[in-house]
Design goal:
The structure holds two protein chains of two kinds.
Chain A: E1 2-13, E2 16-28, E3 33-37, H1 44-51, E4 59-64, E5 67-68, H2 74-84, E6 85-88, H3 100-105, H4 115-128, H5 144-156, E7 162-166, H6 174-189, E8 193-198, E9 211-216, E10 219-221
Helix pairs in contact in A: 4-5
Chain B: H1 7-19, H2 21-58, E1 62-68, E2 71-73, E3 75-76, H3 78-84, E4 89-102, E5 107-114, H4 123-131, H5 134-140, E6 142-146, H6 147-155, E7 161-165, E8 171-180, H7 185-188, E9 191-195, H8 196-203, E10 209-210, E11 212-217, H9 223-233, E12 237-241, H10 242-279, H11 284-295, H12 300-332, H13 338-343, H14 360-387, H15 390-394
Parallel strand pairs in B: 5-9, 6-8
Antiparallel strand pairs in B: 1-2, 1-11, 1-12, 3-10, 4-5, 4-11, 6-9, 7-8
The chains are: A alpha/beta, B alpha+beta.
């Protein structure tokens, strides 16, 4: 379902070239839950961004559901991201001046569908995350936990088959972290593929996690 | 379909503008103001040109002036008959006119002497002779004055008559027999019409002479030939045709347009500062938003569309507001202040209504100079940000 073959990513840091990922090869099956662990700057977030098509690898190939995302034109990778991938960010990355409902609808706006259909889809996702009662509130007035739920609802609004979560509990207390984990477990049971980049130990002992992969200095440690 | 409007995207764009209300409103205000100023200037210029052209049509076909030693001199009346002998000339009218300086107000009145039995050489005079009894004016020492003259005289307590001081220093009392208003205020506002004998008396002119002579020709295409014949017969006379006056007016008009060119330059400079500011980049907040939108599934095209809607909404509404305000200012408020730059600040400046004249090509030019440039200035930095990795702009 997700296949990475010898993926490298280099960035320029001043005049020097920094290697964020070095020849990473990985295969994640449909419905699998994989945790990527590693310290800050190890390359976990870069790996998620590459799988989501948010950036292009310097070399190597990445396939998502049989489509080589690293070779797709930008508009197609955006469409694939919209239809197949839900992204949960560490800092939620909500649009602060929009309501919770509008934030959840935001990924669907380019599809140019009738508002009624978009609102129905958004309400389903929000109910699933237990945040439907806050639909009309502006997200900057919501608590951290509520904002995270809005972010998850936004990731789920198009029924994605893959969820990519980047440090999803970094800004949550333990109670909210456990709530989030419960939501992720529910997604796993519904057949969604989960790829979670974290260094939160809570994730390392979860029964629904199929594999834990450690990344260090851009390399996978098997 | 190449372009399908996305109303949700439009709604998003408007919310985005409202979120940055202060900044959006400032740009909207400046853009509207620039369009308003430029449109007003161009509309006033158009309207005045139209008025000038209308005035020009009423001017004599040929005006003959006599020059001796380089100075204008009165023309002997016997030349009137002699001119009628030239083939192609259908009428010749001697004019008695001049300026009278009214010291208390510091203005010059234009005095024109008319004769009830002569054919009138301008539409204004023809109308006046139909409306007023010129023979009665002669009997009662009366005059007909323009609205501007009436205003100045009444401010100086001359409501029923005026005492002219002749060139010999004597008083010449003339009754105000009527006030006229002409559609062609450019030519009539400072005008005083009175019988020729009074004009002769006020100016102290020899009654066997005229100030100048008006010539009417049967075929306008023959004007250059007739002018040549007149010059051959009377080398001391200068013939001024409508075309000569048109060129002269145009020169003055172009000179005054220089002020507006300066105004235009200032406006353009202000506009391009905004454009420069826009193209120099987006705020970190805007970049972050673009990163988020890309991460949740928007393509660069979607982001550019949204930015297009934003800039199009803002610039088009500013364009319409600017144009509407200038239409109201120029035609409803008669362009107070700005028209003075064209017409001068004389106490007797013409008080005519600006004729409605909207040049579509001018509107298109203004549109092209504002809306597409602003859109481009918004899209360029947005395109730059949207082509960056979303990951990079979100950090």
């Amino acid at each position: 379902m997700i296949v990475l073959h010898e993926v490298c990513k280099q960035f320029m840091q001043g005049d020097e070239e920094a290697h964020a990922l070095k020849k990473v090869s990985l295969e994640i099956k449909k419905g699998e839950c994989v945790v990527l662990k590693g310290s800050s700057g190890s390359g976990k977030s870069t790996l998620l961004s590459l799988i989501a098509g948010l950036m292009q690898p310097s070399s190597g190939t990445i396939s998502v559901e049989g489509k080589e995302i690293s070779k797709l034109p930008e508009s197609f990778s955006a469409q694939l991201r919209r239809e197949k991938i839900g992204f949960i960010f560490q800092k939620f990355h909500l649009i602060p001046y929009l309501s919770a409902l509008e934030n959840v609808i935001a990924p669907l706006i380019p599809e140019n569908l009738p508002v009624r259909i978009l609102e129905e889809k958004a309400k389903i996702a929000m109910e699933q995350c237990g945040i439907a009662h806050k639909a009309k509130m502006r997200v900057n007035r919501l608590s951290g936990g509520e904002q995270q739920r809005v972010a998850i609802a936004r990731a789920l609004v198009n029924n994605p088959s893959i969820i990519l979560a980047d440090e999803p509990t970094a800004n949550l207390d333990e109670t909210l972290s456990r709530e989030l984990i419960a939501s992720l477990e529910a997604l796993k049971h519904s057949g969604v593929t989960l790829l979670i980049a974290t260094h939160d130990p809570l994730f390392f002992e979860l029964p629904f996690v199929d594999r834990i992969i450690e990344i260090k200095n851009g390399e996978m440690i098997l | 379909m190449f372009f399908k409007p996305n109303f949700l995207l439009l709604d998003y764009a408007i919310r985005s503008l409202m979120r940055r209300f202060g900044k959006s409103f400032f740009i909207f205000f400046i853009l509207s103001l620039l369009i308003f100023v430029l449109a007003s200037v161009l509309m006033i210029a158009d309207a005045i040109k139209l008025e000038l052209n209308t005035t020009l049509k009423t001017l004599p076909q040929i005006t003959l002036q006599r020059f001796i030693a380089g100075k204008q001199s009165d023309v002997p009346l016997e030349r009137v008959e002699a001119l009628l002998d030239i083939e192609g000339i259908s009428a010749v009218t001697p004019r008695v006119w001049g300026y009278y300086y009214f010291k208390p107000a510091g203005v010059n009145f234009s005095i024109v002497g008319i004769d009830a039995y002569e054919e009138q050489y301008s539409a204004t005079l023809s109308t006046l002779t139909q409306r007023f009894d010129i023979k009665l004016l002669e009997k009662e020492n009366g005059m007909i004055i323009g609205e501007g003259v009436q205003k100045i005289l009444s401010e100086n307590y001359y409501t029923e008559f005026f005492n002219f001081i002749t060139s010999e220093g004597k008083w010449q009392r003339v009754h105000i027999a009527g006030v006229f208003h002409s559609d062609l205020a450019l030519e009539s506002n400072d005008l005083i019409i009175l019988p020729k004998k009074l004009a002769y008396a006020i100016f102290g002119m020899d009654k066997s002479k005229a100030t100048d002579i008006i010539v009417k020709v049967a075929n306008v295409k023959e004007i250059p030939t007739i002018v040549q014949k007149i010059n051959e017969r009377y080398p001391d006379m200068r013939a001024i045709t409508q075309d000569d006056i048109r060129v002269s007016y145009q020169n003055i008009f172009d000179y005054k347009s220089g002020f507006f060119l300066a105004l235009f330059s200032i406006c353009a400079f202000a506009f391009f500062i905004i454009i420069y500011d826009k193209t120099s980049g987006l705020s970190s907040e805007e970049k972050k938003e673009i990163g988020i939108l890309k991460a949740i599934g928007w393509s660069s095209d979607d982001i550019l569309k949204e930015k297009f809607y934003e800039s199009f909404t803002l610039s088009l509404s500013a364009f319409f507001v600017g144009i509407t305000c200038s239409l109201f200012y120029v035609y409803a408020l008669q362009a107070s202040f700005l028209r003075n730059l064209f017409m001068g600040y004389s106490a007797l400046k013409p008080s005519f209504a600006l004729p409605f004249s909207v040049d579509v090509s001018m509107l298109i030019l203004l549109f092209l100079l504002s809306v597409p440039i602003y859109i481009a200035a918004t899209l360029i930095p947005a395109w730059r940000a949207s082509t960056l990795d979303a990951d990079e702009v979100m950090r």
